[in-house]
Design goal:
The structure is a single chain. By secondary structure, the chain is α+β, with helices and mostly antiparallel strands. The chain starts with a helix and ends with a strand. Helix content is 39%, strand content 30%. Helix 2 packs across helix 4. It has one domain. A two-stranded antiparallel sheet has the order 1-2.
Length: 80
């Protein structure tokens, strides 16, 4: 099961619990900003092994309309 807001809700659900989810996403229009951010993640050693051109290519493939959308999961668990 993925470690997502929805995944946590499904895994730990019990009687009287509800979930309110807030849909949101970061929209990046300048691929260079995202490439720079990825290359700055020193704790992500596997990413550091990739060439800048490879990262740029993968990001651009996920920007069909010129916008890279990165979903964010926020929400609230309510127990009655």
């Amino acid at each position: 099961m993925p470690l997502t807001f929805r995944g946590l809700y499904d895994r730990f659900r019990f009687a009287g619990q509800m979930m309110e989810q807030y849909e949101d996403a970061l929209e990046v229009t300048d691929v260079n900003d995202m490439v720079g951010y990825i290359l700055s993640l020193t704790g992500m050693s596997d990413l550091q092994k990739l060439r800048e051109a490879t990262i740029r290519f993968v990001l651009e493939q996920n920007m069909p309309d010129g916008v890279l959308r990165l979903p964010k999961e926020y929400g609230l668990f309510i127990v009655c």
